[in-house]
Write a structure and sequence with these properties.
2 copies of one chain form a homodimer. Chain A is of the alpha+beta class. Chain A has helices at about 50-60, 80-95, 115-130, 135-140, 195-210, 240-265, 280-295, 295-305, 310-315, 350-355, 385-390; strands spanning about 10-15, 25-40, 60-70, 105-110, 150-160, 160-170, 185-190, 215, 225-230, 270-280, 330, 335-340, 340-345, 360-365, 370-380. The first copy, chain A, has 2 domains: about 10-265, L-amino peptidase D-ALA esterase/amidase (4-Layer Sandwich), CATH 3.60.70; about 270-390, ArgJ beta chain, C-terminal domain (Ubiquitin-like (UB roll)), CATH 3.10.20.340. The first copy, chain A, has 11 helices and 15 strands. In chain A, the strands form 2 sheets. In chain A, strands 1, 2, 3, 4, 5, 6, 7 and 9 form an 8-stranded mixed beta sheet that branches. A 7-stranded mixed beta sheet of chain A has the order 8-15-10-14-11-12-13, with helices on both faces. In chain A, helix 1 crosses helix 2 (about 80-95) and helix 2 (about 80-95) packs parallel to helix 3 (about 115-130). Chain A is globular, with a radius of gyration of 22 Å. Chains A and B meet through helix 2, helix 8, helix 9, strand 13 and helix 11 of A and helix 2, helix 8, helix 9, strand 13 and helix 11 of B.
C-alpha cells in the first residue's frame, strides 16, 4: 500500500482520447492551495499545456488542481492549442470548484491534432463522480500511453511535528531522453514548504533522476514534472535538518519512479545501469554515460544478451569526452573486460553470460582522468520498440 | 559496366574470418606508386589498421596496395593488434612484391578479438592466385559485413590530355554516424595528382557525402576512406579547371556510394533525404538534420510509412539549434504540413500516403533564420535492424 498524503482527492475517467473504455483523463485536487514546483521540457516546441503551466507558475506558485490526459499531446497546435487549454482549465475549475487559474494541465499523446473538446465535455460528469472515489493509481493509469503498468512510489517521513507523506505518479515508455524531465510526473506531498526551496529541490532532484534515464534519446514537447505540497499534515518543513530529510524522501521517490520508467520502456526487457567515474569532470562523465545509453548497437546487444563489450568502448570513444584510451577500464557487473587498451584474457562470453541474462546489467566505466562521475539508467532496444513506434498512431 | 582505372589489380579470397566460403579478404595493388589520401574515424579508440594507415601516410603519401578484411575489426586489441597489423602488411607486401610500408590495411567486423593470423597465412595462396583475375566488385564483396550487396560507383572524365577513370568501393550497413567517414571506402583513380591537393579534396568531399549519412549514429573504431591516384592514365590534373572537373567526379562517386550505403543500411527499407535550410548557419542546419535523421521515433515512423510529422518537429526542437518555433516550416515531399507553429489544414494522412510509401522520403525543413543549410541521408529503423544487431556475433 502506498503512503497517501492528506488533503488530496483523485478522479479519473475514460473520455475516448484513447481506445474506448480505457481511462485517459485524470485529476488531482488539493483541498487547500498547494505550493507547486515545476520542471519542463527544454524542447523549443513546448506543448500548449507546458506553456500554460509555466505562465501560471510564474504568476503564482499556488495550485489547487492538476488535470492530465493521454491520447492527445496538444503540441504544435499554435494559438488554437492555447485556447483549448484555457477552455479545459475553465471546465475543470468549474467541476472542482476552484479557480481556473489554479488548475495546471498536462497532456501526452500524438503531436499535432487539436484537443477534442467535445470528448472533454462529455467526460466531465464521470470525472466529477469519481473525484474522491478514485485513488492515485487511477490517475497514474489514466496517464499511460504505451506504458504497460501505472507507476507510483511513496514515502512517509517522521518529523518532530508529525508525519509527512509523499507520493509520486509517472508515465514514460517512449520519447525519453535526458534533456529534461522526459515524461509526466506528479508528486503530491502534505508538508508545508517554502515555495522557492521546493522549486530548487525539484530542479536538483529531477536532474539526478529523471534527467539521467534514457529510452530512445528523444525529448518530448510535453515533458512536465510537478510537485505539490499543500501543508495538510500540519507539519512545516523549515529547518535545515528537516529539509534534508524531506529532500531525501523526494530523491528516493524520483529515483524509484525513474527506475520504473526505464523498466517499463517501450518494448524494453532490460535495465542497464551505466556508471561512469574517473572523468575529468561530471559533464564528461555524462557524455560517456549518455553515448553508451543511447547507442542503438549497445542497446540491441543488451536485448540479445550478447556480451559485445566492444560496442560500449566504441560508444565511449565517440562520446566527445576527453580521456586517454589506455586509461579506460570497463566492467560488466563485477567482471573486468577491458583495460590498458586491450581485452582482458578469459572466456568473456562464458564469464559474462549470467551478467547479460540478469534483468539489470551494470556497465561500469572508469576513465582514469579525475573526479567526474555520472549514473544513467537505460533501456534496451527491441523489435517490440520498433513495432510499437512504427504503428503508434494506428 | 564500371569505368576501370588503369594500373590496378584486384584480388579476393575466403579466409574464414566470416562464415566458411564467403569472401572476406580483398586486395588492391597499384602497378606504380600511387599518391594516397586518407580520412579516418574520430573515435578515440582507433583500430590498429587505422593507426597503421595514419602513421604510414604521415611518413609518405606513396602507396602500392590496400588490403582489407571483414569479420574481424582488430580494434581495442592494444599493442598486440598493432603487431598483428604489421605481420599482415609484411605478408601482403611479400605476396604482391611491394614494400610492406606501402601496404595500407583496413579491417571491419567484431571489436575486441585478436586477428586470426593462421587464417591469413592459409588464405594468401588463394589471394595471390586471384590477384589480377578478380575485379573491384570482388573486393567490394569481400569487405561486406551485414551489407546485402557490394557497392561500387565510377566515373570517366575527359581531359585535353586524355581520359581519367575513377572507381569507388564501399561497405557500410551499420555503426554509421556522421562524425567521420563512417565506413570503409576505397577510391582508385588513374590521374596524376598533387598529394596535398588530393588530401584536401578527399577531406572536403568526405564531409559533404560520407559525413552526412546516418544509419544508427554510432561512429566506429575502424572508419577509413582511402583515395589512390597512380597516374597510369598519363594525365596530370594540375590546372584549376582540370582540378574542378576531377573534383566533381570524386564528389559524384562519393555521393553515389553514400546513397548506396544508406539504401543498404542494416534492415533498412527507406532513404530519408533530410534537407534543412534557413538556419542561422550551417552548423545549426546540421544539428537539426542530424537530430531528425538519428531520432528513433522518426526512423520507426518512416519504417511504418506513418506520416507522424510531429516527431520531426519534436526532433528539430530538441536538436540544440537556435530558431523561433513559429518560423519553422516542414514539407514532406511537396506537401506543406506545418508552418507558423501549427499544422496545415487538410487530411494529411491521405495527402502524405504516396510520399510515405515511396522508397525515398524527402523531409524538407526551413528554419527562417538565415543562410545555413545541410542535407543528410538517413535510413529507417526496423525490426530487422534489431534482429541483426541483437545477434550479430552469433
Amino acid at each position: 500500500m502506498h503512503h497517501l498524503p492528506q488533503g488530496y482527492a483523485y478522479g479519473a475517467a475514460a473520455a475516448g482520447f484513447k481506445k474506448a473504455g480505457r481511462p485517459d483523463l485524470g485529476l488531482i485536487v488539493s483541498r487547500t492551495p498547494a505550493v507547486c514546483a515545476g520542471v519542463f521540457t527544454t524542447n523549443l516546441f513546448q506543448a500548449a499545456p507546458v506553456l500554460a503551466c509555466r505562465r501560471s507558475l510564474e504568476a503564482s506558485p499556488e495550485v489547487r488542481a492538476v488535470v492530465v490526459n493521454s491520447g492527445q499531446a496538444n503540441a504544435c497546435t499554435g494559438e488554437q492549442g492555447l485556447e483549448d487549454c484555457e477552455t479545459v482549465r475553465n471546465l475543470v475549475g468549474d467541476l472542482a470548484g476552484v479557480p481556473a487559474s489554479s488548475v495546471l494541465p498536462a497532456s501526452t499523446g500524438v503531436i499535432g491534432p487539436r484537443l477534442r473538446l467535445e470528448l472533454w465535455r462529455n467526460a466531465l460528469p464521470e470525472l466529477g463522480r469519481s473525484l474522491g472515489q478514485a485513488g492515485p493509481e487511477d490517475v497514474a493509469r489514466a496517464m499511460m500511453t504505451t506504458d504497460t503498468k501505472p507507476k507510483l512510489a511513496s514515502r512517509a517521513v517522521s518529523f518532530p511535528g508529525g508525519e509527512v507523506r509523499l507520493l509520486g505518479m509517472a508515465k514514460g515508455a517512449g520519447m525519453i531522453g535526458p534533456n529534461m524531465a522526459t515524461m509526466l510526473a506528479f508528486l503530491v506531498c502534505d508538508a508545508r514548504v517554502d515555495a522557492a526551496w521546493w522549486q530548487d529541490l525539484l530542479r536538483v532532484e529531477a536532474d539526478r533522476s529523471f534527467n539521467n534515464i534514457i529510452v530512445d534519446g528523444d525529448t518530448s514537447t510535453n515533458d512536465t514534472a510537478l510537485a505539490l505540497a499543500n501543508g495538510a499534515s500540519g507539519v512545516e518543513v523549515q529547518t535545515r535538518a528537516d529539509r534534508e530529510m524531506l529532500a531525501q524522501a523526494v530523491r528516493e521517490v524520483l529515483l524509484e519512479l525513474s527506475y520504473l520508467l526505464v523498466q517499463d520502456a517501450e518494448g524494453g526487457t532490460k535495465v542497464a545501469r551505466i556508471r561512469v567515474s574517473g572523468a575529468a569532470n561530471d559533464a564528461d562523465a555524462q557524455l560517456v554515460a549518455r553515448a553508451v545509453g543511447t547507442s542503438p548497437l549497445v542497446k540491441t546487444a543488451l536485448f540479445g544478451q550478447d556480451a559485445n563489450w566492444g560496442r560500449v568502448v566504441c560508444a565511449a570513444g565517440r562520446s566527445g569526452a576527453t580521456f586517454a584510451p589506455q586509461d579506460l577500464t570497463l566492467h560488466f557487473g563485477e567482471v573486468l573486460v577491458f583495460a590498458q587498451g586491450r581485452p582482458e584474457p578469459g572466456d568473456m562470453d562464458a564469464l559474462l553470460k549470467p551478467v547479460m541474462q540478469a534483468p539489470e546489467v551494470p556497465i561500469v566505466i572508469s576513465l582514469g582522468q579525475g573526479p567526474g562521475q555520472c549514473e544513467v539508467l537505460a533501456s534496451d532496444l527491441t523489435r517490440e520498440y520498433v513495432s510499437i513506434n512504427a504503428d503508434y498512431r494506428s
